[in-house]
Design goal:
7-stranded parallel β-sheet; 238 residues; alpha/beta; 41% helix; single chain; globular; 14% strand
Length: 238
């Protein structure tokens, strides 16, 4: 039975990952920052009591990241989904989110938070789980965004864009470093998805996005490790 660890599993894409992998008989370690506020995730864990294990993980707390690594000190891990992300307040559809991140408005502390959650934490977590992933010749899937593309940049959202572009670069480097371990790394845009972050105007359903990303994992040999691709497996411009 295969094993996955998912960050930001209490809602949106993360929760859908948990549901779809559990339905496929994976053992899923579903992490979230506040267990007491994860009602939907806890309900899924009740639905799949032998497959879903809810764990506490605040990605701004490196001691908690290290503790998760210790849980897998001698265990294999087939899939790490670095799903948790930070977009600030509002949604991708809101003008307020764009204003909040405007170059003239954002302060250094807030900008650092984007980098901490969207880039640094996924790398630190990946580092702590490399042993487990190498035992299974596993996959690291990092949730990125088309907004990270320098080629397709149309301005605005400086903090979010730059943090995800940094994630792309770091994960592309990690793909090279982990090749001798048999670990594949994929940097994936899930699309503009109808979630709390994506907003109601988003055209892609959560189920459709996750189904596409699961297909990438299941057909990993089709893709070069370190690739930047969308949820349908199409290469994206850096």
């Amino acid at each position: 039975m295969k094993t996955a660890l998912i960050t930001g599993a209490n809602r949106g894409l993360g929760l859908e990952w948990v549901q779809q992998l559990a339905a496929r008989e994976w053992v899923v370690y579903a992490s979230c920052r506040q267990l007491a506020e994860a009602d939907r995730l806890n309900a899924v864990a009740v639905q799949f009591p032998d497959r879903v294990r809810v764990i506490q993980l605040d990605l701004s707390n490196e001691s908690e990241i290290a503790e998760v690594g210790l849980q897998f000190a001698s265990e294999p891990l087939d899939l790490l989904i670095n799903n948790a992300g930070y977009f600030g307040t509002g949604t991708a559809s809101d003008a307020s989110a764009k204003l909040e991140q405007d170059f003239e408005n954002i302060n250094s502390d807030d900008w650092h938070k984007y980098f901490q959650i969207n880039c640094i934490a996924p790398m630190v977590l990946s580092r702590n789980l490399l042993g487990a992933l190498s035992r299974a010749a596993g996959v690291i899937l990092a949730t990125s965004s088309r907004l990270s593309s320098i080629t397709q940049n149309d301005g605005g959202l400086h903090a979010y864009r730059s943090s995800k572009t940094a994630l792309n670069a770091a994960m592309a480097s990690l793909a090279i470093d982990t090749k001798p371990l048999g670990i594949d790394v994929f940097i994936v845009s899930p699309g503009w998805v109808k979630t709390e972050m994506g907003g109601s105007r988003a055209p892609v359903k959560v189920t459709e996005s996750v189904q596409g990303m699961i297909a990438i994992v299941e057909n990993r040999a089709k893709y070069q490790s370190g690739s930047f691709i969308d949820y349908q497996g199409n290469l994206l411009p850096w």
